[in-house]
Write a structure and sequence with these properties.
The chain is α/β, with parallel strands linked by helices. The protein has helices at residues 2-18, 88-101, 122-132, 171-174, 195-199, 225-229, 231-234, 256-261, 264-277, 286-293, 337-342, and strands spanning 26-29, 39-40, 77-83, 108-115, 137-143, 181-185, 189-191, 209-211, 213-214, 246-247, 251-255, 298-299, 328-330, 368-369.
């Protein structure tokens, strides 16, 4: 094992030194460690261990015998989320909610995308997830910000300019090619229903993504007058085939086979390049998705994205639920439930998020986690965009 790790480290070093232009993408991180030591984690992150949720009688029987589940297993539900120090508390609560309500929690595999230069480091974030969910099937991918940084334009709120917000554009490249379908979830959600129901959504025809649609929303407000006054750009939505409806990108079922075949990453990037030259929208990562997919989305029941609970993107406010049943609560917008709860100024619906919060406050401002000092063996299984 030492011999293998040494050669992996030497290979990575050679690639970085001799072919730096290749290092524009992601690397995967092993998730099962047996290390000792301690690391100081910024912002005082510390979480209690979640209950060990197990499959019911009607679920597939696990045949791993304690070994890690393969990310290529087609029988699993695959979920992709970002993982960063700013929204870590939300991500942990989201994972907890998924497992708590899943009929077959052991049959879920999480694909986490972490920024290369996160203050807590992808290694520490990985260890925090493992210590909180010891039995969780997951893999962490490192996303290099310079993959997308030159394509990002200013937004109405600085948080929307975070490069990690655009990681969903690159899931087809980052996740193993054997993963042909994934549910993408934002970090500010909680699931209060069985995620397997969402997983079973069929994408009809040649549709690439499925999401709850809102066809009565004022679609024009998502783009500037410059966009609508240009007949070529606004003609994107004038086709009889496309009747665009708004959808929120925080909850999507994605067919990664069709995504890769259609090179949808590049289609989104082309609109971002236009935005850099001519300002055609004010929000961050949402409008390019609307430009590429609006009008060609598999409509999913609204219960799977009760969004907007964080309030508007500028001031923040308290919102109420949309009419109808609820399977997923989404605090999209400026206000986040953990921030308002800590400030003793929660909105009424923030208390629905609270039961899934595993955070333990630490007055000392740091958290000790296991650390592997064998840095040469840390980044194995490398892949690049």
């Amino acid at each position: 094992m030492v011999h293998f790790r040494l050669h992996s480290g030497v290979l990575l070093y050679t690639l970085v030194v001799l072919f730096p232009q290749l290092c524009l993408g992601i690397r995967s991180i092993p998730t099962r460690e047996t290390n000792t030591g301690a690391v100081e984690v910024p912002n005082g992150f510390r979480f209690s261990e979640a209950p060990d949720y197990r499959n019911g009688r009607d679920c597939p029987v696990s045949t791993t015998n304690g070994r890690s589940v393969s990310s290529c297993d087609p029988s699993l539900v695959h979920i992709a989320m970002t993982l960063d120090s700013e929204y870590l508390r939300g991500s942990i609560a989201a994972v907890h909610s998924v497992l708590k309500h899943a009929s077959c929690p052991e049959s879920i595999f999480f694909h986490f995308v972490a920024a290369e230069f996160d203050p807590a480091s992808p290694r520490v974030l990985t260890q925090l997830v493992r210590s909180t969910f010891p039995s969780l099937n997951f893999k962490v991918y490192i996303f290099r910000e310079d993959t997308v940084i030159n394509l990002i334009s200013s937004s109405i709120r600085q948080a929307l300019e975070n490069p990690l917000n655009y990681a969903r554009n690159y899931l087809g490249d980052m996740l193993d090619l054997c993963v042909d379908r994934v549910i993408y979830l934002d970090s500010d959600i909680v699931v209060v229903d069985d995620i397997h129901k969402l997983w079973n959504t069929a994408l009809s025809g040649s549709r690439v993504i499925g999401a709850p649609e809102y066809c009565h929303a004022n679609f024009t407000q998502y783009f500037t007058s410059v966009f609508w006054s240009d007949p070529v750009m606004s003609g994107t939505f004038s086709s009889a085939r496309r009747k665009p409806c708004y959808f929120n990108t925080g909850v999507m079922v994605m067919d990664l086979v069709r995504w890769r075949e259609g090179d949808y990453k590049r289609r989104i990037e082309k609109w971002m390049e236009i935005q850099k030259k001519t300002r055609i929208y004010e929000l961050g990562s949402l409008p390019p998705f609307l430009l590429v997919f609006a009008g060609d989305v598999e409509a999913i029941d609204h219960r799977w994205n009760q969004h907007g609970l964080g309030g508007d993107n500028v001031r923040g406010s308290c919102r109420s639920l949309h009419p109808g049943p609820v399977s997923l609560l989404h605090w999209s917008g400026k206000g986040k439930p953990w921030v308002r709860l800590d400030a003793k100024k929660p909105c009424k619906l923030d208390h629905l998020w609270e039961p899934y919060d595993l955070y333990i406050s630490n007055s000392k401002g740091y958290y000790y986690a296991h650390n592997d000092h064998q840095s040469m063996g840390f980044f194995t299984g490398s892949s690049y965009l």
